[in-house]
Write a structure and sequence with these properties.
The chain is mainly beta. The protein is built from one helix and 24 strands. β3 and β4 form a beta hairpin. The protein is globular, with a radius of gyration of 27 Å.
């Protein structure tokens, strides 16, 4: 009996330690440890060998002076008609679905809209060039909002634009634009708040003169058509210049006023070489791959590439959209 009492007293004496152990276990099991956010790297599909280009068909009959163009994954086509100040919406076969806008300076109206870009949130961004602003359109509600530049009655507080010619959107939703007559490019968020400004002034090789086309790849690299210097600039996500290629001329890898850019799913860059009436295609390092369109195009303005490797080129002089197919080597081909 004495032994049992001793054991009981020993057990009582250890209760505080047991309570501490239980409490510690409870805290550990219930607490939420903050885990680091893992951002998966996005790598374009490995590019196969580019074999050639076929011209498929033309879309005509709707347009006055088609300029900017954007294509959804389901092949719905959006066209900015700079001559009619209207955005046309067509299906994948080129049939008219709808149109929106008219000449004017109010929200949802345009003066010489020159480019379009789609994000992955059902929003269309419009470079409303003649109104010195960027508008966005919700494709579900069909409502418009000015996010940058002049609105109906005043300038937005952030940035004054001068003839923005081109607009692009990256995978995170940030918006890039060429502020053409101010010779700079801007990156803003969806509310129009400035995230980055890139200028190239002076007479050095970095000088920007009438920059127009802009595109952003899936790794955040920025491609810019430095139009009046007949060059393409490649920058990283921070705006650091990585490379410049091209010079004035008519040969491969030379340009006469490049005005628009597009990227395909392999990361290859399509340069609308307006003065030479052609599209030139380069890999991400600036190596020339192929050129096409010179026999068909008269005054090309805008270019877009869909996931099915169809290339859409607006031609203002013929008031048409020319559709091409890029032919890549199949994986099992030898």
């Amino acid at each position: 009996m004495r032994k049992n009492n001793s054991d009981f007293h020993e057990w009582i004496k250890n209760i505080p330690y047991l309570i501490c152990l239980i409490a510690l276990f409870f805290v550990i099991s219930c607490s939420k440890t903050e885990q680091p956010r893992i951002v998966p790297s996005v790598i374009p599909e490995e590019s196969p060998r580019l074999l050639g280009v076929n011209h498929l068909y033309s879309i005509k009959g709707y347009f006055s002076s088609p300029a900017g163009i954007a294509v959804e994954p389901d092949k719905t086509i959006y066209v900015a008609d700079a001559g009619m100040d209207i955005i046309y919406i067509l299906d994948g076969e080129g049939n008219m679905i709808d149109s929106t806008g008219r000449f004017g300076w109010r929200t949802g109206e345009f003066i010489k809209p020159m480019d379009l870009a789609l994000d992955n949130r059902l929003t269309l961004y419009i470079a409303d060039t003649g109104n010195d602003r960027i508008q966005k359109m919700n494709l579900v509600s069909k409502t418009f909002k000015v996010i940058l530049g002049k609105d109906d009655v005043k300038l937005t507080e952030s940035i004054n634009l001068s003839a923005p010619e081109s607009v692009a959107v990256d995978s995170s939703g940030s918006i890039y634009l060429t502020d053409t007559l101010n010779n700079r490019i801007l990156k803003v968020d969806t509310l129009g708040r400035l995230q980055m400004e890139i200028k190239g002034s002076g007479g050095n090789k970095h000088q920007l003169v009438n920059p127009q086309g802009i595109a952003v790849d899936r790794m955040g690299n920025i491609y810019l058509a430095n139009t009046d210097k007949h060059q393409i600039h490649k920058l990283d996500f921070s705006g650091t210049l990585l490379d410049i290629w091209g010079q004035e001329g008519t040969s491969e890898s030379q340009f006469q006023y490049p005005t628009d850019l597009a990227l395909d799913k392999f990361g290859n860059l399509y340069v609308l070489d307006q003065g030479n009436r052609r599209i030139q295609v380069f890999d991400s390092q600036g190596t020339f791959l192929i050129q096409f369109g010179k026999v068909i195009l008269t005054k090309p303005i805008g270019v877009a590439v869909d996931n099915g490797l169809r290339v859409y080129v607006t031609d203002s002089e013929s008031a048409s959209i020319e559709i091409f197919r890029i032919i890549y080597q199949q994986p099992d081909s030898k």
